Amino acid sequence: MFEFKPVIYVDVPATFLASAPPSPRSAIMSDEEHHFESKADAGASKTYPQQAGAIRKNGYIVIKNRPCKVVEVSTSKTGKHGHAKCHFVGIDIFNGKKLEDIVPSSHNCDVPHVTRTDYQLIDISEDGFVSLLTENGNTKDDLRLPTDETLLSQIKDGFAEGKDMVVTVMTAMGEEQICALKDIGPK
Fold it and tell me: In sequence order, which ranges of the chain are alpha helices (DSSP H)?
């Protein structure tokens, strides 16, 4: 004779469904669940990981949450506690402060995405902001004059003389600063 076996459906949180075999009920609900929107752009991360042993002098590294240019790297031999260690000395690319860090050579370090962009200088405001012309013809007005005295005087003197100048803006980890100047002749 036939035996009757009852079937019981149970609502299970989505986190458990990844390891459970598919059930008829989960297949029916699949269109209603898991709607995600991504607001991030490609390349939106401020840093990327790189093995400490692969970072070289004149490269970049994040030390104490600051983007730095590596000026010195030394590697110690493997000791009784396991890992060879890398000693990094870096100069903060925005404020010039010297920072140091020691990291096992097999561990990952954060490396900042550093970009340099050229803009034509249009104007200098009285409150220390510059007006720059972007490549697509818009203006960029949210950048201050640099704190480096030599670069600051070159920009102000050249602008006062009426020269056409292009400034290079370095961007890393959400900060940007004028780092170089090119004189492209009189206006």
Answer: 14-17, 24-29, 149-160
* Alpha carbons 73 and 53: distance in angstroms, whole number: 10
Domain boundaries, given as residue ranges, for the chain: 47-112, 115-186
The distance from CA 111 to its chain's CA centroid, rounded to whole angstroms, is 8
Phi and psi angles of residue 157, each rounded to the nearest 5 degrees, phi first:
-65, -45
SS3 category, 109:
strand
Give the tens place of pLDDT for each residue, 16-30: 444 555 555 444 444
**Environment class of residue 7 by beta-carbon count within 10 Å: exposed (0-12), middle (13-18) or buried (19+)?**
exposed
Q: What is the model's pLDDT at position 38? A: 40
Q: Which fold has domain 47-112?
A: SH3 type barrels. (2.30.30)
Q: What is the mean pLDDT of residues 157-163?
A: 89
Tell me the fold of 115-186. Answer: OB fold (Dihydrolipoamide Acetyltransferase, E2P) (2.40.50)
d(CA 164, CA 111): 35
